[in-house]
Structure formats: structure tokens, C-alpha cells
């Protein structure tokens, strides 16, 4: 019986350690995960441990995870997410990416929102070469915002505010 109790105590300790470290890793990997869509004119983002600004938002009312990408001309949506977000594939168009040229499909996002910002009629692309679930937030949205980076913090403001 003593050996069984030691086994149970060990499992309990491992479970508690897992929960503690999982929370710590989530905080490092996704420091903006608690971001809410709320009225305002400014949003402050923290860089994750990989050096990226990743944060939640919505496309056409559906939850997505954005990765801010100033090198992307358009918002780039993984093609496999398109139908679930209510996006229709339009004309084919080539896109030059870090992995080479890929043939994407033009699309238009009715509403895109994150933090205090909501933007309507966003030009975007459906990219079959993107395998994950992160949407690249490119300049077709960022052109509506002013942004300032200081260290590991990025401040986004609505233009004119």
C-alpha cells in the first residue's frame, strides 16, 4: 500500500508541475492571448519568445489567431480556413513568399476585428501553402493603423487619434 501511495503522490506532483509549467510556457508563447475586442483607439501587444506579435481576433465574426506581418501586402489566410470564415475564393494570383512563389486566390473579408479595431472590406488572399491556423495580418489592414515598437512592445493606434 505504501508503494501505491508513493506512486499516486508522484503522479499528483507531476500533474501539478505540468499545469504550472504549461501556464508559464503559454504566457511566453502567447502573451496576448487574453486580448479582447473592445472600443478604443490604442492596442499594446507584447512580442512572444519567438519574436512575433501573435494575438486573437475575428474574421467575419469567427475567432482566429493573427500574426502581425509587415512584409505581407495583404492579409493571408490559410486556404483550409477559408470556407469556415465565410470567404469565397476569387481570381488566382501569384504571391511571393519566404518559401517562394505560390498561387493564391483573391478574397475579400467583410469584417476583420482585433482589440479596439474593426475594419470592413479587407482585401486578402487564400493561401494553399499555409498549413497552420495563424492568419498573417498584412499591410491591407496595417495601413489603417499607426504603429510604434519599443523593445518587446508594439503599440497600434488608429490613424488620426
What does this entry look like structurally?
The protein has 161 residues and is of the alpha+beta class. The longest helix has 28 residues, at 2-29. It has helices at 2-29, 139-142, and strands at 42-46, 54-59, 62-68, 75-78, 92-97, 100-114, 117-127, 134-137, 145-150, 153-158. The protein is globular, with a radius of gyration of 20 Å. It has two domains: 1-30; 34-158, Acid Proteases (Cathepsin D, subunit A, domain 1). A hairpin with a 2-residue loop joins strand 5 and strand 6 (100-114).
Topology:
Elements: H1 2-29, E1 42-46, E2 54-59, E3 62-68, E4 75-78, E5 92-97, E6 100-114, E7 117-127, E8 134-137, H2 139-142, E9 145-150, E10 153-158
Parallel strand pairs: 3-8, 4-7
Antiparallel strand pairs: 1-10, 2-3, 2-6, 5-6, 6-7, 9-10
Question: What's the shape?
Answer: globular
N-to-C series of helices and strands: HEEEEEEEEHEE
Give the count of helical stretches: 2
Rounded to an integer in angstroms, the radius of gyration calculated over CA atoms is: 20 Å
Q: What's the architecture of the largest domain in CATH terms?
A: Beta Barrel
User: Mean pLDDT, rounded to whole units?
Assistant: 85
CATH fold assignment of the largest domain: Cathepsin D, subunit A, domain 1
Q: Could you give the count of β-strands?
A: 10
Q: Determine and state the CATH class of the largest domain.
A: Mainly Beta
